[in-house]
């Protein structure tokens, strides 16, 4: 972010009430109705632009048998429309008076597991669609396990195509009971079951009279009201340094000596006067001022973007991390992590990559593959020779520079990374760090007085 006169002064927009942003993804098996559900949400909430609606009407005779095919709102690839499946991740945006939404429509095929991981990695909530006729199948378990692995806080099991089982309460309860046999082992605490018909719109945006036995909210009603404020880690302060803010305005006396540390808060709360430490160097100082887009503030919290002015002129640069003095992270150049391998060329021990963690990019080598994960049970298998496309497994990594990180289960922002192939700069893996063994302690640091 660049500093300007407007940056240092409260913006008129700050008077507007804040509206929450909910990120969610849909997943499930092939033809469970994921794309149709998103199309129904957009259509019934009147979030479709006129030109989009006209394009749907023009294509109705080709892809919808003379009727609007709501799945075409997200299935944008020609191959997707021809086959009636989702291949790539499609993102859609809409808003209601209560909340803004970013939707990721993820594919259901086993071979597109990497796409599902990509689309769900930033989600607050995951919608698992289940065909009421087929019930709980392997893909239902697989995607629920991936949602658990990615630590998605909220889960909705949408039992779709209820109209094809005559809105049977017994069938709905049977599917719910089967889910509840394995959900406790996955550690997902907030789970909601909703009977719907995505094609007809029942219980999607408005409640349906066809389910008098169902007393819960509609799907959109739940999405608008699910509590997400506590999803962010507000315990330990973490600020990955993005850049040093030195505005080139020598004629402005208020900015002449301005030297701020800019970045997006990845965890916790920071306050004026708070003692902080710059890692991995261990230099400690205090926060003199906190600036946001709307002007100076007394405190800021995750996931706000801020510029900090520090009391001492310490050496800080991109890739370092500023932390508080409580709930300390780990720091190590050797660690274990769970990964989803995303490249057609198999991963084998000894390969070198670039590793990007928050704002730090460093050289890394995969020293060992400890096991491949059985995605249907989340149980580790024997150590394999390599990981193939869409495999999930655990690896050991060594890096040229130490990472300052938390376990992924505690902080999804500081506990994740990607591996990049040096020659092509292709992203080949997404990783989730396990709990650090070595924790940073205050007596490890050289304090600045």
Under CATH, the topology of the largest domain can be stated as Rossmann fold
Query: Separation of termini?
Result: 29 Å
Structural class: alpha+beta
Strand content: 25-35%
CATH superfamily of the largest domain: P-loop containing nucleotide triphosphate hydrolases
CATH domain class of the largest domain: Alpha Beta
**Contiguous uncertain segments of 5+ residues:** 1-17, 61-65, 76-87, 444-449
Task: Provide structural commentary.
The strands form four sheets. Strands 7, 8, 9, 11, 12, 13, 15 and 16 form an eight-stranded antiparallel sheet that branches. A six-stranded mixed sheet has the order 2-3-1-4-5-6, with helices on both faces. Strands 17-21-19-18-22-23 form a six-stranded antiparallel β-barrel. It has 449 residues and is of the alpha+beta class. The longest helix is centred in the N-terminal third of the chain and has 14 residues, at 50-63. Helix content is 17%, strand content 33%. The model is unreliable at 1-17, 61-65, 76-87 and 444-449 (pLDDT under 50). It has three domains: 18-225, Rossmann fold, CATH 3.40.50; 233-323, Beta Barrel (Elongation Factor Tu (Ef-tu), domain 3), CATH 2.40.30.10; 330-433, Translation factors (Elongation Factor Tu (Ef-tu), domain 3, Beta Barrel), CATH 2.40.30.10. A hairpin with a 3-residue loop joins strand 11 and strand 12. The chain is globular.
């Amino acid at each position: 972010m660049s500093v300007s006169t407007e940056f240092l002064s409260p913006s008129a927009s700050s008077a507007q009430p804040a509206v929450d942003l909910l990120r969610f993804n849909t997943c499930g098996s092939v033809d469970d109705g994921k794309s149709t559900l998103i199309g129904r949400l957009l259509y019934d909430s009147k979030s479709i632009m006129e030109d989009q609606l006209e394009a749907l009407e023009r294509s109705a005779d080709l892809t919808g048998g003379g009727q609007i095919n709501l799945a075409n709102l997200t299935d944008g690839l020609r191959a997707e429309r021809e086959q009636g499946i989702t291949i790539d991740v499609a993102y859609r945006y809409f808003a209601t008076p209560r909340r803004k939404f970013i939707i990721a429509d993820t594919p259901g095929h086993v071979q597109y597991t990497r796409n599902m991981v990509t689309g769900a990695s930033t989600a607050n909530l995951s919608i698992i669609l289940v065909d009421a006729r087929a019930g709980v199948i392997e893909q239902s378990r697989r995607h629920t396990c991936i949602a658990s692995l990615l630590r998605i806080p909220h889960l909705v099991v949408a039992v779709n195509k209820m109209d094809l089982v005559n809105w049977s309460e017994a069938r709905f309860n049977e599917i719910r009971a089967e889910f509840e046999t394995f959900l406790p082992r996955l550690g997902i605490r907030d789970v909601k079951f909703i009977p719907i018909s995505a094609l007809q719109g029942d219980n999607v945006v408005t409640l349906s009279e066809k389910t008098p036995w169902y007393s819960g909210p509609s799907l959109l009603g739940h999405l608008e009201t699910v509590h997400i404020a506590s999803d962010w880690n507000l315990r330990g302060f973490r600020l990955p340094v993005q850049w040093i803010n030195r505005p080139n305005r020598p004629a402005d006396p208020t900015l002449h000596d301005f030297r701020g540390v800019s970045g997006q808060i990845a965890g916790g709360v920071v306050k004026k006067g708070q003692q902080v430490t710059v890692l991995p160097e261990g230099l400690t100082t205090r926060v003199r001022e906190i600036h946001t887009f709307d002007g100076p503030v007394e405190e800021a919290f995750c996931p706000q973007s801020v510029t900090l002015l520090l009391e001492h002129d310490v050496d800080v640069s991109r890739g370092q991390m500023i932390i508080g003095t409580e709930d300390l992270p780990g720091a190590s150049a050797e660690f274990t992590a769970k990964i989803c391998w995303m490249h057609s060329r198999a991963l084998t021990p000894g390969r070198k990559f670039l590793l990007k963690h928050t704002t730090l990019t460093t050289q890394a080598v995969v020293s060992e593959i400890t096991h491949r994960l059985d995605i249907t049970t989340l149980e580790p298998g024997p150590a394999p020779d390599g990981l193939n496309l869409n495999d999930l497994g655990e690896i050991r990594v060594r890096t040229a520079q130490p990472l300052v990180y938390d376990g992924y289960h505690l902080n999804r922002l500081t506990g994740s990374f990607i591996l990049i192939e040096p020659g092509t700069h292709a992203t080949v893996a997404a990783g989730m760090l396990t709990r650090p063994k070595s924790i940073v302690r205050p007596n490890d640091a050289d304090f600045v007085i």
